[in-house]
Amino acid sequence: MKKLITNIPKNKLNKAIVSSFSPANLGFSNPNLIRDFAGCQISAFESSGLLFCYITKNQLTLEKKIVRELVDNQIKKITFIGVGIEIGESNLKGFVITDHVNMSGLNPLRGVNDDKYGVRFPDMSNTYQIDFDKNKLTEIRLDKAKLLIPKNIENLSAIEKEALEKNKELQVISEETYFGVITAKQAGCRIRVIILKEPTDINSLFT
Which value, in Å, is the radius of gyration of the alpha carbons in the chain? Predict the structure, then answer.
């Protein structure tokens, strides 16, 4: 199978963003290289040591592949950025995820396990890092929240609605990022997740 991530500058890139928003929509500009293949645009920001993977289609199927290629390239610090729906109303732009409740019934690690990337069922506790600068989070209007991953984001089940009622920290619903998160956790990566309600300039979090 053809690789998505090839010929990246070695020893210059040590972290990555995997996003369903384009770099420009998040405030990033002037990448050192751009490569587009099979629904994923790869951009390199060498000055900040960052590889940006913009997923343009078929997100869930691509996330697992991208994460494993990042790991193959010795990049194990990954920030996932996706779009979601807020529970309630606020002036927030989005959320830094602290935990998730997966009610989708889907898991990227189903099937034959590749032991090269880790154990069959990784421990999902303490998955999410929240080490962004607090002042910058406040300035951009991001806050902490738990993520609900439903079976169908347009038609929540009674059980999913009950979960929302019982756990007030479940402030955002999204069907994005979790395939990549679970795959990255299996491989022992350092993981951060931001769910945005709309395109938002968050470049300052990474500078």
Answer: 17
